[in-house]
Amino acid sequence: MKYFYSQKSLKDTGVIEFTLRHLPGYEGDEYTVSPLQKGGSGRKYYRIWFRGGSSVILVRYTQERTENAHYVNIAKFLATAGVRVPRIHFHEPKAGLILMEDLGEKDLWSYRHASWAARRPLYESALSQVFLIHRETRLPTLNLKMELEFDERLYLWEQQYFFENCLENIWKVETSALRALPALQKIALRLADLPRTLVHRDFQSQNIIILSGKAYLIDFQGMRPGLGLYDVASLLYDPYADLAIEERRELLEFYKNLCGDSSLLQEDDFETTFLMCAMQRLMQALGAYGFLGLKKQRQNFLQYIPVARRLLREVAISIGNLDSLVETLERTALECTNDSFSYREVRQ
Fold this sequence. Notes:
alpha+beta, Phosphorylase Kinase, domain 1, Aminoglycoside 3'-phosphotransferase, Chain: A, domain 2, six-stranded mixed β-sheet, two-stranded antiparallel sheet, disordered C terminus
């Protein structure tokens, strides 16, 4: 057998042996291993190529984040709901190893420079898939381990996550007055009072694989009860892709038509709820970029802060009654440009 290890630790920990043991027919084949850089969850991904051209994805995870252990059962559940997700070949929970189908390297993000005519059907395919999660009615009877549902406490946590890891740690802003804003607390309460369904929780362009023109969902281990519009806002206000205003408008209308007369449209104000969800998601994203960029020293996440800051400011203006937040975001704009924003500068 010939093999090429991209990382020595794979051989040392028996991961390759595990893979071959659970893929009958490949024991004597040649293969190569390539590490994949994905997200900020702490999971490690590897693509294993075999001589005949087939490949699988190997995932290594720890128990540091409880959601990592939920991935396989959620994948199986989503498959029963008709959602396109990777097929699970094998799972060894004690070792924290998952072997799953390789859907390829083309995610929705990789199409970001294509024309809108080319991108729009891909986004619509993605929204159609996540809608299958939102309309799922088995929630009360599910015996499925998930993360804590979106309630007032979680929405407030997202806001505090932004204040601490972005405004305070990056821009050194005094946030005590912002943290106490009644308008922000009212938004958290209003969203928490709306009927919940299942949500993906991290529905953005890098978590959507495109295969033969169809969207497949990945990284759904954070699925939980929440608002479907949170997922929609996550995709339409994704700082990684930065859609145009008209593109967002068309896609929101597409999702609204998917909902039809379902209970998903029984909120008092569809578009206001959408904007509030966008505000929450952008706060969460900015907090994550600051946390990963500074505390975890994964500096590549810092490059998305300028776009996310601009989007959050636009959303806050549209919601209204958030003048102090808007003013703070305007002040930070002077320190937040794509050309000059760097880890070194935010540390000064």
